[in-house]
Amino acid sequence: MNVDKLVREALQEQATEQDGPRGDLAGRVLTARRRRRTRAIAGAALGTAAVVAAAVGVTAFGTGGSDGSGGDDPRPAGRTHGGDVIAHPDQSVPRDFVAAGNVGMAGYAVSRDIPQKNGDSLLVRQYFLLNPATKKYEKADAKWAWVAVAPGMRTAAVLEGELPARRIGMLDLRTGEVTRWITTDRPVAAVEWSPDGKRLLATAYSKNPDRLIDRPGDHAISGPQPHPSRTGYFVIDAGSGEVGPFRPLPQPRAEKDGYFPGVSREDMHWNRDGTRLFVMVYEGPRGANYRDWYTPGGAKTPAPPGERHTGWPRAGLSPDGKLLADDSHARTSAIRDPRTGKEVARVPSQEQLAWADSKRLVALACDPARCTGDAFGMRLVVVTVGSEKAVPLTAIRKSPEGYKRLWSPMLTTR
Q: Residue ranges of region Disordered (predicted)?
């Protein structure tokens, strides 16, 4: 198996997640490899990068309470373990509500690539969202090209396909109806809730970042390719629907060495407490991970003190600010001191998704008896810092009926 194929398979579980760092990771990894290759074989690498980039998407996470969209905590009931853990370890495709501590799975998504008549390739997501009334996951309307669930899990911000869209819908998850629309004067292709659920961060694009463009006549590149088109972002008051000023932040158009970029989607994200924004970037010969930081008003700014050492894992800083989730190595993932970046512990997981509280994480992990690092052998678990035990929340993930790819969890606070 070649390295590009290995990377693609290792990242397939991230096919529809809604938080940019995972989506960017595939492109960044292959971009790094391209930098180390000769131009003679760059075309083959870029062809593989296009496949990977087409398989990625985003997940909205919150760390605060419900907002003007959410009301009181619904606390859906289900099979429980350890008091605040709601698990269904017999379900390989979730049917009933799953949660641990402060975090619940608001839904899941699965994606597929659809070849277009003009040679393009379009990534399409299908969402399955929690109905707060039935406490079950239900298939959402296929017209929603983008869904971000608010803290409290009663409302979702939605975008109609094909992206980008000029209006954002507020979807009532109990009824499946849009209660109001928010219009932007520039088209957007991603929306993310602030940790307290009071604001929306909408990333603007001039083209659909989920569409790979065929480039006929370019013999150095094979297959449909990414096309960076981010133009900037808006910060929106969720309660009033007031759209703030457009903040220009163009996406880099090409690499300095002339290679075509390996990823189209580079969305803006909130930091842990909602005081900063960031976008993932790749720099350095060793494949180091970095974030570019901005104020909500658009000014470049240093990283918050507790988030200087953050990398790809979306879990990031713990609620009490004392621990930092970091990258995985084989069967375990690192936990670091956010002040120094020094490793202080390891947990039995391959991808750290969200902090359930200041000591426990919701993560993706493989069965220790069959752990190969393959995305197809992972399940949703709860791990505790200082323990080698992983408590299953679901069975080993399988593809939903009618799909080839695995489902990806959408987590938020409950």
A: 63-90
